């Protein structure tokens, strides 16, 4: 176990002058093998995101933004370095424990939704709570509340194939938020939404950031979405730098 990880177990949540650190990356490196060569996508990257903070990640295509999201969410393991969420180093978790940790602490909004085709919008949104062991009725009550907040409650009983791209995206956002996560990771969350719906999603993110400790990391090519966040970081040559 690394010294950093040990420190986190002694003090489960870190504090800085700006408040509680919900996400921390230290020396995060990801190297892929392509034929005979190693390709370094992330190179000693460092990032801290405080509770209630919204951070946008921008960068050119192929700069490693999706790789970074996968590492932050525990969907991939770094070549070196570590990711710490809510005081827990992901390096310390085996696959089963990591799955449970993701379910409790991390919400995902993928660019292409990843909804289950055979389930209704309501069932898709409630699924993380049901996987956790929550009673179906209670899980669906919470899911319906989130579907209402994202403006799609009237389509709760429809399956993904009966929904537009924007409607599916709203279901995915409700699913990400249903567990009251510590961290929400978003990949182009408003890319399939009209301007009015995108504005309502931004307002919901603002509300959650203000009223809960949930932190947001948002990968986007949309300058207006990035500018709406508390900070904008640019990913370039495997490193993150603050964008003014």
TrEMBL record:
GO terms for biological process: lipoprotein localization to outer membrane; protein localization to outer membrane. One of its GO terms (cellular component) is plasma membrane. Residues 23-244 form the ABC transporter domain. Keywords: ATP-binding, Cell membrane, Membrane, Nucleotide-binding, Translocase, Transport. GO terms for molecular function: ATP binding; ATP hydrolysis activity; transmembrane transporter activity. CDD domains: ABC_MJ0796_LolCDE_FtsE. Belongs to the ABC transporter superfamily. This is ATP-binding cassette domain-containing protein.
